């Protein structure tokens, strides 16, 4: 995908403003076929909605999901590098290592359901700046990380599930959600120390939060930027997206703030249980497909959500085939 213009964010602003629309004919074919099931209309319940969503955003309701991918982006933050917080950058490295050696929960889930899995190490040895005092990184670095995230869909992916991991990134996500959706720090966390971090970040960057991409580079981090890039690229290539966890939800909120249709091709896998997660999901119009409160931080809910979508598409195709044959 060619990206070239004057300022680093210009290409992304243009893409976000001109995103493809859903294929309503593909959606309609699936809905019509499911409504003609021998049992009764709506027999598949919420699964029918997932099948119709996949048809609309992939442009087809007649092909199985053949190349699903779970992509987990790992980054470290200045608040975790600081000695005055309880976060530990080493936790991020340990999780990445577990995924690399195949011992994380997400590895087993992906193996069981034939899901591709990629863990992206986003310069873990170099934490972004402490958002309480300065911008996480500069515009060029943020745009480059978004572009890197866009490459996650390369190779013919037809469903992608996105998650972010990094010590302290749920607090960063809460701060970014507060910047995008409003409210006080206490609306986004029940933890007093975390609320102080969020409040400090919002105060430091208060004059620069009107532009969602500027807010992303000031309050977010590398995994947030990469996920935002992957969401945009997936939309451009008609690849439906499953989101997992607070970082993915915050990245989606940035794009939604720029264009309220920018994440319509996304589903939310699960409520992660954070104080602001349900608030943010509701604001963005997401109704999680699971209700398991998974907080593993390694893409576990992403894998489960992707598996559900795959099985739902296969089920709906079988049902449609039965109707056609009848």
Report a brief summary of the structure.
This protein has 326 residues and is α/β, with parallel strands linked by helices.
Mean pLDDT: 92
Radius of gyration: 19 Å
Strand order of the largest sheet: 2-1-3-4-5
Characterize the main sheet.
5 strands, parallel
Strand content: 5-15%
Element-by-element helix/strand order: HHHEHHHEHEHHHHEHEHH
What percent of the residues sit in helical stretches (DSSP H or I)?
A: 40-55%
CATH superfamily: Nicotinate-nucleotide-dimethylbenzimidazole phosphoribosyltransferase (CobT), large domain
- CATH top level is Alpha Beta
Please characterize this protein's 3D structure.
There is one protein chain. The chain has 326 residues and is of the alpha/beta class. The chain has one domain: 3-Layer(aba) Sandwich (Rossmann fold), CATH 3.40.50.10210. The chain contains 14 helices and 5 strands. The protein has helices at residues 10-17, 24-35, 46-58, 78-81, 89-101, 105-112, 139-150, 169-181, 192-204, 212-219, 222-236, 245-258, 277-284, 300-325, and strands spanning 68-74, 116-121, 159-165, 241-244, 266-268. A 5-stranded parallel sheet has the order 2-1-3-4-5, with helices on both faces. The longest helix is centred in the last third of the chain and has 26 residues, at 300-325. The N and C termini lie far apart (44 Å). The mean pLDDT is 92.
